[in-house]
Every structure is written in structure tokens, then in C-alpha cells.
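Predict the holo structure. Ligand: S-adenosylmethionine.
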Amino acid sequence: MEYPSIQILEKQFDDQPFRYPLFNHMLKLFFQDRREHYAWGAICATDLAYQLSLDRISFAEFGVASGNGLIELEKIALVLEAIYGIQIDVHGFDMGVGLPEIAGYRDLPNLWSKGYFPMDEQKLRSQLKKAELHLGNVSDTIPVFLDSSPSPVAFVAHDLDLYSSTINAFKLFEDKEDYLLPRVHIYFDDIIGFTYSKFNGERLAIEEFNARNEKRKIDQIYRLSFFLGKRTFWDESIYLLHIFDHALYAKNDGLLQISVIQNNNCPLD
Ligand SMILES: C[S@@+](CC[C@H](N)C(=O)[O-])C[C@H]1O[C@@H](n2cnc3c(N)ncnc32)[C@H](O)[C@@H]1O
């Protein structure tokens, strides 16, 4: 399939006060049968890279298991590469043998056990086109990944299930700004329903990350459903890592079309 360039697509929305209608249009047109929750974060992340004039970025999935998510992320990346002309490296991180040891109540032992979600590595490798698999515990594989000077990470799908694994994976978010966009879009899979809370699992890891880092904070994009124009199971699961002292943090991200808003066309007033 031929994809239109971002320059063609954005022209149709230059009378809109916000960039969200363009993102919604792309979601509907190109990603309806893809994982919308990955696609949304990936669109926003690639668009930010475009606004920052970057030519190469990374997407990552933490927690790959059988690989359904990574395969989708790879397809999403290929479409966005064609639209934006930005090279997108795709990385998948997983133990390869299912969940590691459950380390107490913070890891929700009522839900999870060691060995859940094993991977068929050979089968998955035969299905992947460009994604790189980093097999082993994230506490070992992330330092190796960072040593390889990756292109800056723009979007992360977090699906490691456990607090102990998630807090280790956040080491990526504490590393050099060269490896990160000033705002990294994140989808967190394990925060809605069940027995998740801010005292266990991914949300506890987020709380601790924020307490530990003065200039880096992870927070939800509040009321995203309004801008999406629909409620979904995932609209409360999209977060941003803000790196407030990143050299590119203050560069305009084009989310507000200020000339339109200044003509009193702001739907929020
Ligand atoms: C629910 S599965 C991921 C499902 C996948 N995202 C999908 O959408 O198909 C969780 C995965 O996280 C991985 N995992 C959990 N803790 C890990 C750790 N410390 N290091 C590497 N992988 C880990 C497990 O191996 C497991 O395969």
C-alpha cells in the first residue's frame, strides 16, 4: 500500500486548533486493525520526532511473550516510516522463558506466577522483519542496549506485569538524554482493573520513579478520551515521561495550532 506523506496529511487539518484530529484520522485510516493503543502512542511519538526534525528514533516493547504485540509494533513502525520519512528501530525485551521470580506483594502474586507467558523464540524470530529481540532479564539487557548507543527512544509499550521488573526497566528512563526524546510516549498495560493500585505493580514503580527523579517525571495524559473523541479501554493508559531538563524540551511540538486558536477557534473556551 502507498502511504501519503505527513505533509499531505497535515494540510487537511491546518484549520484545526489542535493536532489531535490529524492523529485520530491517521489512527482510523491506517491502524484500525492494528493495536490502537500501541498505534496511538507511536503516532504521537513519531510526530514529536518530526516536529523536532529528528531522522531516526526507537520504539520498544518491554514484555514480548509470544510476540503478538511486537509484531504489531513492527507493522506500525513500517507505516509511520513511510508517512514521516523517519527511520524507526524496533526493540523487544523479554526473559524468553516467561515471568521471573515473583518478588512479594508488590508483584501481585495473586495474579502472576513464575514462568507465565513463555516465548517460542524460533517461531517469533521467523515472524519478525526488523525488530531486534533482547533476551534475558531487563536488569541485564538494558545496560547492554544503552551501550549500543540506540537512536532516541520515542515510544515504549510497558507490559512486564511485575513491579520489580518495571522498576528495573525504568533504568532506561534515567539514562543519557541522547537516548530519549524530551517526552517519551508510554503505554502501560497493567494499570486498569483487577487488583492494580499505586501501591503495587506498574503504578508503584511510576510513583517511586517520580520520587527518585527531580527533573524526570512519568504522568498520565489526562482526559485523553476527550481528544480521541471516544472512550476506550486504553485511553487512561497513555503516559508521558517528561525530561524537563532535556535540551529539546522547550522546542515547540505543534500540538496547538496557535494561529487558529488566536482567531477564537478554540473548542475549549
Ligand atoms: C504479559 S507478557 C507480555 C505480552 C506481550 N506484550 C503481548 O502483548 O503479547 C509479560 C512478559 O514480560 C516478561 N518479563 C517480565 N519480567 C521481565 C524481566 N525482568 N525481564 C525481561 N522480561 C520480563 C515475561 O517474560 C513475559 O513474557
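The two ends are 40 Å apart (CA to CA). The mean pLDDT is 97.
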